[in-house]
Amino acid sequence: MFFELHSGGERAVLVQIAIDGGANEPDLGEFIELVRSAGGEPASVVRGSRRTPTAKYFVGQGKLDEIAEEVANAEAELVVFNHALSPSQERNLEAYLQCRVIARTGLILDIFAQRARTHEGKLQVELAQLKHVSTRLIRGWTHLERQKGGIGLRGPGETQLETDRRLLRARVSTIESRLDKVRQQRAQNRRARQRAEVPLVSLVGYTNAGKSTLFNTWSESGVYAADQLFATLDPTLARVEVEGLGGVIIADTVGFIADLPHTLVEAFRATLEETLNASLLIHVIDVAADDRAFLKTEVESVLEEIGAGDIPQLVVYNKIDLLEREPRITRDSDGTPDTVSVSAKTGEGLDLLRDAIGERLAGRFFTGCVEITPMQGKLRAALYELGAIQAEEWLDNGNSTLNLHLPDADWARLKQQHGI
């Protein structure tokens, strides 16, 4: 049940206003790409500056007339603001411009609605849309803002708007209940991974940084990847082998973006929990982007917002093939890997990435060779159950040597239980 905010191919006038002297002006190139990703056709761009937005139209009267002129000249069907608009501002702008007006949040929601593929992703998008649209119902129902009447409709004492809002609240409650079940299932899967001490490595980064391409190349998966914003909405997990660690779970997650709407952060809580429970975050950055330092800051800001700011990070500079750079690892003052330069498209540097991940996570594992007697059969069985025995060799005296690799916590527990 998606709300179709607009269909593809519509001519659109784009509006971007620098507020407070342009100190925090959004990226115009990204804005144009967002409109194209939604299927719109940017006809013209109206730019300006204001100290503060106006309460009625967001822009001043002069700029409003300029937008109206551009709409007429381009025969545009849609005006898109690269800002957050209140419901009353959208309503006033539509009445003045005589065409549909949507804000940045509505635009991103529309892209998400097109990209969602799994049942969970569609539920999350619908939840965000419902919460966004519920405050804007009056735009389409002003002619019904009265109590029902007529044959068969007398008696409820409820306006059409009240009915719609009540139905929306019921639908929101249903979706939240379903997402709670998804969340519980994820929590159960996470507990199983934690019992087995399988590390979770989560790919995070700005949208279109190349996370899904890296995921596919590394795990030999077929996750949808494209050179477009928000190609991935649904979290995907895969198990890969890392030398010295054994099995590691990697998670491909939704990309972040500047001014990510809070409704999306809330709706995608189940997805973002894969990030919150990661042992290590792989922060993928498009090294060819001119504003990569700003994009890095924006991602770190969102990670702080969702409570993942304290999780260890390994920065991966992707797309080195576009700059003809060589893959490399850099280390901090303690010798710990902190950045890796790779090309997810060509696979260059992925061996360095595996090594860096192995080093970052190796401290959590015990690796060594132990000798056990036939009387320690329960210990041997427990080690096999954990998948900790990499090789076993029998000795002439009836003992055996085991090459072990298992989490420190499990090894400490087994030593205590079996009196080693």
Automatic annotation (TrEMBL):
Signal peptide: none annotated. It comes from the Bacteria. It is found in: Cytoplasm. Its main location: cytoplasm. SUPFAM superfamilies: EF-G C-terminal domain-like, P-loop containing nucleoside triphosphate hydrolases. It holds the Pfam family GTP-bdg_M. The keyword GTP-binding applies. The keyword Transferase does not apply. Keywords: Cytoplasm, GTP-binding, Magnesium, Metal-binding, Nucleotide-binding. Residues 199-365 form the Hflx-type G domain. Monomer. Associates with the 50S ribosomal subunit. Belongs to the TRAFAC class OBG-HflX-like GTPase superfamily. HflX GTPase family. PANTHER family: GTP-BINDING PROTEIN 6-RELATED, GTP-BINDING PROTEIN HFLX. GTPase that associates with the 50S ribosomal subunit and may have a role during protein synthesis or ribosome biogenesis. This is GTPase HflX. The gene is hflX.
